[in-house]
Design brief:
Elements: H1 13-31, H2 35-39, H3 51-59, H4 67-88, H5 90-111, H6 121-131, H7 143-162, H8 169-187
Length: about 190
């Protein structure tokens, strides 16, 4: 009897690369006592004359405040990301990550002058809503999308109003809206 050949495949290069880079950034953050996370991998209100302000609009999604933060985000990204990358392709997944990073970074910069933002939670919420569009057909709105939207975004609105927990609920909401928007655009018939 022949044994089956099992091999490990690199099935989602953007998602796996993103998770790995976030891990490296997390380890560097630990080694620098959080200094690198603050300097490069968090976005906050800083001078527009500084080139790092613009870099941080994108890199803040790579930094995490601790292991629980990292593990929570990567669990969702590694669960949902490969399915999204298989359906939409690596370039589109990368564009979702970059768009989410830029928009959440800009919103934080403009509206929350005293708040530093880091982590991939906006990307997680973009992936959650984008995943609910995987069975989308033109002219239809999947009930799963409506339920996911109500549950996840509704929870973030509630937490944003009633819970003071140092979590950027607005970034989650923005990420979810980006995921919903690109899910619709990616799936509508031309």
């Amino acid at each position: 009897m022949k044994k089956p050949n099992l091999k490990i495949t690199f099935n989602a290069p953007v998602v796996l690369g993103f998770a790995f880079v976030c891990l490296v950034v997390m380890l560097i953050g630990i080694a620098t006592g959080g200094g690198s996370t603050t300097a490069v991998f968090s976005t906050y209100h800083s001078s527009l004359a500084s080139p790092m302000t613009y870099v941080r609009f994108f890199t803040h999604v790579l930094g995490h405040a601790g292991w629980d933060h990292y593990i929570g985000n990567m669990a969702y990204i590694l669960l949902l990301g490969p399915m999204i990358e298989e359906k939409y392709g690596s370039k589109r997944v990368l564009s979702v990550i970059l768009i989410t990073a830029l928009i959440t970074g800009l919103v934080n910069y403009i509206f929350f002058w005293d708040v530093a933002l880091c982590g991939a939670s906006g990307v997680v919420f973009a992936f959650i809503l984008l995943t609910s569009f995987t069975s989308f057909k033109d002219g239809e709105i999947p009930l799963t999308f409506i339920l996911v939207f109500v549950i996840y975004i509704g929870q973030q609105v509630y937490d944003g109003i009633f819970v003071n927990d140092n979590i950027s609920n607005l970034s989650h909401i923005i990420g979810g809206l980006i995921g919903a928007g690109v899910g619709y655009v990616f799936n509508r018939k031309k």
